[in-house]
Records
---
Amino acid sequence: MLTKKIIIEINKGILKEWNEKNPDNIESIAVNEDRLDEVLEMVKKYDEPIIRAAYLLAGISWTQPFSGGNKRTGFVSADTLLRMNGFILVVNTQSDIDYLQSLLYEIQESRSELDDMTLAKIILYLTKRIKKHGSA
């Protein structure tokens, strides 16, 4: 089970690595647990791991529960959730990365609610890029 504690640790690790590589651009490490709880409540509504991963990825990018590294934390958390359920997310090209970043910026800009159209694109993005662990 991917817990709130694990997601917070993922964010701390991401920001620690960022801060080590970018000492002139330090990001503080803080979390708004109410916002993170909001994301986890959305995720709990679904049983399908791919849908749960999409809501985790989009939800963290949308609610911005961390002081920094939200999109990176959303991605690593979604990837972790998929791996815990026997899937591997395969993102091979820069255009794949750029497209996902553009979707996450779209989600982030939708401040009033989580945009269903963009969320559907994220679900499709994940669906096209996962493999069952152990399959060729």
Note: The chain has one domain: 4-132.
---
Amino acid sequence: MQLLDEQVAENMPQQIIYGTVTEDGVKQSGEGFEVQSPEVGLYVITFLQPFVTTPSVVATLNNWGADNQLVVKDTDINKFHITIWDLEVTQKSTTGSAQLEVRKEKSGFNFIAIGEGS
């Protein structure tokens, strides 16, 4: 059975789309995608040629602080979303307890999407 799976995988064309996006939502490098930033910290990457099945997407932040998080979500054959969060621990007074403030933040990032192409 494993040999059959390997033969099927060898005959499936792969599609790879990758790129770099600036914190302002501008494509810095890469091909095969468009990017929009409808609000601060949210980026929508749309593939110019859809995948056959939902791709695997990996992304990393550029020039980020240790308190930032990047989340890849809502991935489908046409697009995916990236949300970037700033996590900050603040203390309003010397007697109060520290609080975690979470807000969306602009940041550049790199990504790669790999999946079955047509």
Note: The mean pLDDT is 89.
---
Amino acid sequence: MGAALSIQSVEEPAATKPVAEILTSVMAEIAALAGDADRLQDVIGRLMPEGDQLDHDVIRQAQSIDIIVQRLQGLSQFLQTLSSDVPMGWRLDANTAADGLLLADLAHRLGGRERNAGPDISSGECDLF
């Protein structure tokens, strides 16, 4: 796996952030994903054919997005509870973990480092089909 993360409680180097703040950031990302996935259910519903053209296996697979939404919401609530229970002095340098992310905007939100100026082509790929 990746580099080990260390929890620090005595010193507060500039690169560290409170663990509760990091957990809250991850919780917000997961909550946003849950909202996006929930909206996808509506899109999928509009794309589904009506009447005799329904493929029941495809319908079951499309309905699995509902469990994805529920799991993301559950993870978000779990992290919210954890973040409120973390001791105040616990700090973590999340930059190393964030640097390994492929989406620059996500890495910035989770790691907190300033993004490089210039075109934002590194924030992800978009394949239109």
Note: The beta strands are 7-8, 17-18, 91-92.
